[in-house]
Amino acid sequence: MKSKILLSLLLSGSITCFAQGYKDGIEYYKVSEYDNAKELLERNLNDASTNKSEAFYYLGCVALENGNTAAAKDYFQKGQSAGSCQLNLVGLGQIELKAGNKKAAEENFSLAIKNSPKKDAKILVAIARAYYEVDGVKYAKEIADYIKKARKNNKVEADTPILEGDMAAAEDKTGDAQGMYDEAISYDPTKSEPYVKYARALFKVSPQQAISRLQDLLQQNPTSALAQRELAEKYYENDQWTKAAEQYGEYIKNPNHFKQDEVRYASLLFYGKKYQESLDLARQIEASLPATDKNVFYMKRLQLYNLVAMEDWAGADEAAKALFAMNVPAGAKYEVKDYTDYADALKKLGRTQEALALRVKAYEANPDKLDLLKDLSDGYSDAEDYVNSAKYYQMFVDKGDYKTNDLFVLSKKYFYVAAYDSVPESKAVAVANALKYVDMVNEKMADNVRMQILVNLHKAKVLQVSEVDKKEGKAVDTYKKVLELLDQDPANLADRKDDYILAYNYLANYYFATGDKETMKGYYIKWLEADPGNDALRKYVEGLSK
Q: What angle do CA 441, 437, 355 make, to 5 degrees?
C-alpha cells in the first residue's frame, strides 16, 4: 500500500464498516484494559449505533475498577435511564454490596433478573461476577449458586465458563482456566475475550500457539479492534517484526485504533526498512499532535533515524536540530542512537569535529556502553587525531572488559601516536605503551605461530619508529625473529611475501648504515629473491656484485 493511501486512511473516518463501534470498548474492558475501554466507549458514545444503556454500564464498571464509586453510580443511573440494559441494576447492586448493604444489593439483583428475558444467563453471570469482585471468599456460596443457575438456564452461554476461567486463573490454575476459555470459545467462536485471555496465559510458555489462537479469533471476528491489536502486539513481542508491521498496518485502518498504535506502527515500518513510509507517517503523526504530547519527541527521533537510513544527510541534520532543541518529556531521554545517527550525518557533511563531539556526548550519557569508546577511538583515528584515538581505546581497555585482540589494537593505536609525534618526550611515552601492550599479547599468544608473526612484526615496527638513527638497530633482533617464524612454513614465501620484504629491507639498510657490506649484500639478495619483479632493486644488487 502506498504511504499516501495509508495516511489518508489514518485521517479519514470512512471505514466504519471495519469497526464494532462501542463494542470494542466493551471487549477492552473484559480483558482488563480499562483506560483503552473508557476511551473507546466515550469516543463512540454518541454514535447512532451505540446502545447507550449498555455503554454507560461498562463506563460505570471502568469507574469502579478505578476506585471512583460516585462516578460509577452516576454512569449506572444514566444507563438505567437510557434504555433496557438491566446490567446497570447489577452495577448499582454491586455498589450497595461493596458498601455493606447486602439487602439493597439483592433487591437490585432481583429486579435485574425480573426485568430480563427468562433464562438470561448473562444477567446471572454478571451478578455472580459482582459478588466475586466485591469478595470472592465471603460470597463464595452466592457465586456458586448463580453460576449453577446460569448453567442450568443456558448451557451454551460463553460468559459462564469465562467467569469460571477467570476464577481459576486468579488461583494460578492455568490449565483449568484454559479449559474454561476453550469451552467458552466452543459456545461462541466470535467472542474475543476467551481467546485473548487464553493467549495471554499461554504466551510465555508457547508463544506460537498463543499467536495461533489469536489468528483463529481474527478469522472469526475480523472487525474486532482488540483482536487486530492483540495479534499485532504478540507478533511484536515475539520479534516477528515483518508480521507485526503488516498486522499493525491492517489494525490502524480501524477507527477504533489508538494514537500510540500509530506511533508503534511508524517504528515498525522503520525496523522493516520501509523508511519513506515510516518517515511520512512520523511527520503526519507529529503534525496531528499538540506540541506538548510526548509522542512528538519520539516522532522527531524517528524522522532522524529514517533520514539517516535514507542517507539524506542534510535532512537528517535539520531533523536532529529539531530533536535536540526539544524539552525532553518526562520518562524519556536522548538515546545513544540519537547522538550516533546525528554524528554519522555530520561526518558525511564534512563536519568531523562536531560529529566526534556528539560521540563523546553519547558515551558520557551512556558510560556503560563500552563499545562507544571503540567507536570514538575509530572516529578520531579517521580524523587522524591519533592521540585521542589512543586515549579512548585506553579507556576501553581500562574498563577491564577486553579481549587479547583489544590489547593488540591498543598497541597499534600508540604506534600511530609515536609515528606522528615529533616531540621526543611524548613520543617515548607512546612507544613505551605500544611495547607494553604488544608484549602482553606476545605472552598470551606464545603458542600461536600466526599471531607470533603478527605480534613480532608489529613490535619491530614500533622499535623501528622509535629510532633516531638507523645505526641504532633497535628492531634488528625482532625482524630476525619474524624471519625465523616465517621460515617455519614454506607457503609464507608466497602468502606473506610483503612481510619478508619489510624485514629484509630493514636489515639491509641497517647493515648498510653500520658499514657491514657483506651482511648487507646478503639481505639485499634475499630481498630480491622475495621481490623478483623489482627492477630498481635488481640493478642495485647487480651493482653490488661488480
A: 115
Distances (CA, A) of 538 to 63, 89, 523, 531, 542: 95, 108, 13, 9, 6
Chain segment 32-60, per-residue pLDDT in tens: 999 999 999 999 999 999 999 999 999 99
For 327-356, what is the mean pLDDT? 95
DSSP 153-174: H-TT-THHHHHHHHHHHHTT-H
Residue of 370, 317, 369 lying closest to 344 (CA atoms):
317
What confidence score (pLDDT) does residue 390 get? 97
- The secondary structure of 507-518 as a DSSP string is HHHHHHHHT-HH
Residues 198, 31: Cα–Cα separation, whole Å: 11
pLDDT at residue 18, rounded to an integer: 52
Q: What CA–CA distances, in Å, run from 48 to 51, 55, 221?
A: 8, 12, 22
DSSP code at position 327: P
Report the pLDDT value the prediction gives residue 2, as an integer from 0 to 100. Answer: 36
CATH superfamily entry for domain 475-546: Tetratricopeptide repeat domain (1.25.40.10)
Report pLDDT digits (tens) over 165-202: 999 999 999 999 999 999 999 999 999 999 999 999 99
**458 in Cβ contact with 411 (< 8 Å):** yes
Question: Where exactly are the structural domains of the chain?
Answer: 475-546
Please choose, from the candidates 23, 65, 71, 14, the residue with its C-alpha nearest in 3D space to the C-alpha of residue 44.
Answer: 23
Neighbour count for residue 518 (Cβ, 10 Å): 7
Could you please report the per-residue DSSP string of 183-209? Answer: HHHHH-TT-HHHHHHHHHHHHTT-HHH
Short-list 226, 239, 224, CA closest to 197: 226
- What single letter denotes the amino acid at residue 34? Y
| Cβ(35)–Cβ(24) below 8 Å | no
C-alpha cell at 360: 563523546
Phi and psi at residue 136, to the nearest 5°: -65, -25
Contact 228, 243 (CB under 8 A): no
- Which residue reads 657491514 in cell numbers? 516
Asked if 415 and 465 touch (Cβ cutoff 8 Å), the reply is yes
Question: What is d(CA 484, CA 448) in angstroms, rounded to the nearest whole number?
Answer: 14
In angstroms, how far apart are the furthest CA atoms of the chain? 127
Looking at per-residue pLDDT, the higher value among 109 and 153 belongs to 109
Task: For the beta carbon of residue 528, count every other beta carbon within 10 angstroms.
Answer: 19
Q: What is the pLDDT of residue 546?
A: 67
Q: Which of 50, 53, 121, 132 is nearest to 86 (CA)?
A: 53
Phi, psi at residue 469, to the nearest 5°? -135, 140
Contact assessment for residue 258 and residue 39, using Cβ atoms and an 8 Å cutoff: yes
Distance (Å, rounded) from C-alpha 471 to C-alpha 522?
18
Identify the helix (H) or strand (E) that includes residue 233.
helix 225-237
Q: What cell does 358 get?
A: 556528539
